Amino acid sequence: MSINPEWSAPGQGGQSWGDQPAYGQQPPVQGQPQPGYGQQPPAYGQPPVHGQPPAYGQPPVYGQPPQQQPVYGQPPQQAPVYGQPPQQAPVYGQPPVYGQPPVHGQPPVYGQPPAQGQQQPGGQPAPQGAGGDSVVRVVWVYPDLLSTYGDRGNMLILAKRAQQRGIPVETIEVRSDQPLPTHADVYLIGGGEDGPQALAAQRLNADGGLHRAVNQGAAVFAVCAGYQLLGTSFFAKGAKCQGLELIDIYSDRGETRAVGELAGDVDPRLGLPRLTGFENHGGRTHLGPTVSPLARVSVGIGNDGQTEGAWRGKILGTYSHGPALARNPAIADLLLRWATGYDTLPPVDDTWHDHLRNERLTAARPNPA
Ligand SMILES: NC(=O)CC[C@H](N)C(=O)O
């Protein structure tokens, strides 16, 4: 992936929301199936045997009534009867709603069977993540080098929120002396001190697995040191280090260390509530024209006191620890939607996340205007 060498100077470029398409309007990633009309829900378990009714949880067979995929915490819905019209007719031009069959041209909703008559032999494959099947695979990259302020929680929250929806999920922790698997759907990279951060960047560049995974359409969520090393360069222990060049950012050092609460209003195209987190970093990050800031800072420093984090496609970086996905569960759901191709996920109980968010956002002291 090439990076535009003519980056704007800090504070001049990449500071607007840019013209990236919003989620749901992203251009297709090469080699990735696009969810749409006539697609099947993800397959679970074994393929059905010819002449046998499909077992619970298996994909529907053409000519047989599709069965409802169960959703954790939801009562099973009645499967449509062959020869009978579906109970709810899809409405053209309406966004998909959980509990309704998929609409032509719209991504399907997790847990819904295709509507009767939409099932086509030889149709499009089911929406799926970069791993090529219905299991969402989450790799936690180098926890032996990059894991500060509870970054492990990001993996736990992501897995928990998948399980709560009945989405099969596999978590894989990959140490820095192991090759990085390239078949996963989401890669999590945590924060770290300068020395381990520099070593992690060297090893990730030598391994090449993260680059291959991104080219195959995997999502990346990176925090602090992990965020900095996604760019072209960063500073560690006073030395300029080569980054992964996966996004159009670079980092230098600030005059002071940024330590404390971090909050901001997220790029509206991502459809997320306010960002909240804890930051502790010496680096300052500058965005080129091909990435967008994740948020506009209202509390703390983030990239440079104005913007915080960056995103492009399915790569998202932030200075927010906390862990970030415990404080911002909507980001976890965004990653799950990117991984599964589903536009909508069933809601889950966010009571404790909301308590945490309210408490932290209330405690945070806004920057002077
Ligand atoms: N918390 C972190 O990940 C720190 C990142 C980096 N070492 C810095 O100080 O900027």
UniProtKB/TrEMBL annotation:
Belongs to the CobB/CobQ family. GatD subfamily. Signal peptide: none annotated. The lipid II isoglutaminyl synthase complex catalyzes the formation of alpha-D-isoglutamine in the cell wall lipid II stem peptide. The GatD subunit catalyzes the hydrolysis of glutamine to glutamate and ammonia. The resulting ammonia molecule is channeled to the active site of MurT. It comes from Catenuloplanes atrovinosus. It catalyses: beta-D-GlcNAc-(1->4)-Mur2Ac(oyl-L-Ala-gamma-D-Glu-L-Lys-D-Ala-D-Ala)-di-trans,octa-cis-undecaprenyl diphosphate + L-glutamine + ATP + H2O = beta-D-GlcNAc-(1->4)-Mur2Ac(oyl-L-Ala-D-isoglutaminyl-L-Lys-D-Ala-D-Ala)-di-trans,octa-cis-undecaprenyl diphosphate + L-glutamate + ADP + phosphate + H(+); L-glutamine + H2O = L-glutamate + NH4(+). GO terms for biological process: cell wall organization; cobalamin biosynthetic process; peptidoglycan biosynthetic process; regulation of cell shape. Residues 20-97, 106-128 have a biased composition (Low complexity). Residues 1-132 are annotated as: Disordered. GO terms for molecular function: carbon-nitrogen ligase activity on lipid II; glutaminase activity. The active site is at C224 (nucleophile), H321. SUPFAM superfamilies: Class I glutamine amidotransferase-like. Residues 137-328 form the CobB/CobQ-like glutamine amidotransferase domain. The keyword Hydrolase applies. The gene is gatD. Forms a heterodimer with MurT. The keyword Transmembrane helix does not apply. Gene3D superfamilies: 3.40.50.880. Its EC number is 6.3.5.13, 3.5.1.2. Pathway: Cell wall biogenesis; peptidoglycan biosynthesis. Keywords: Cell shape, Cell wall biogenesis/degradation, Glutamine amidotransferase, Hydrolase, Ligase, Peptidoglycan synthesis. This is Lipid II isoglutaminyl synthase (glutamine-hydrolyzing) subunit GatD. Substrate binds at R257.
